[in-house]
Design a protein that fits this description.
The chain is an all-alpha fold. It has helices at residues 28-34, 37-47, 51-59, 66-78, 82-90, 103-120, 133-147, 152-177. Helix 2 crosses helix 8 and helix 6 runs parallel beside helix 7 (133-147).
Length: 180
């Protein structure tokens, strides 16, 4: 049974086809394609803490465009084993509430996190792309409570999808922010 609360596809904007910030510097994707494998893997591990995922993306370079890189990232995330997922989840931190959230929301979220970790044995992973700061607390609490009703296999599928979405967003941020 597929849970009805699985996130839909998110339209990810493409990076502009241009050179880097300084004259003569390579475009982010060109740099990604030509940088040392060790450097790229280090960057990729900040996106998703799975060595298998990072090696797979690195080993398939060069990518002709951003869409190809993102497709490879998605495919590698879909192919993560249970051990790969455990490794990635071990590197995830709990989502946090925005500044100024009521203490009751913090307490409720802490209790929900504890219940989640007790039931599933790992941190709660969620991609908050597209959620406004004013909606974050409600979205987090609603989603974690909903996911607590999943059986372990359903939750494994949802968690893997959330990790894929997190990796995709972080990869785009890394390309934009670090000149990669």
């Amino acid at each position: 049974m597929t849970p009805t609360h699985l996130p839909g596809q998110v339209d990810i904007p493409s990076l502009p086809e241009q050179t880097g910030d300084t004259p003569g510097s390579p475009a982010p994707l060109e740099h990604f394609n030509t940088a040392l494998a060790e450097d790229i893997q280090h960057t990729l591990l900040t996106c998703l803490r799975s060595h298998h995922w990072a090696r797979r993306i690195t080993d398939h370079r060069p990518y002709p465009d951003l869409d190809s890189l993102l497709a490879a990232s998605d495919e590698a995330a879909y192919d993560l084993t249970q051990g790969d997922l455990a490794e990635a989840l071990a590197g995830e931190s709990l989502p946090v509430l925005p500044e100024g959230a009521y203490s009751a929301a913090h307490m409720a979220l802490s209790a929900a996190h504890a219940a989640y970790e007790t039931k599933f044995g790992h941190v709660f992973a969620i991609c908050l792309d597209g959620v406004t700061p004013s909606e974050t607390a409600n979205h987090l609490l609603t989603t974690i409570r909903s996911r607590l009703t999943n059986d372990p296999e359903e939750e494994r599928v949802v968690t893997a999808e959330e990790l894929r979405r997190l990796a995709r967003g972080r990869l785009i941020d890394a390309l934009r922010g670090a000149g990669l």
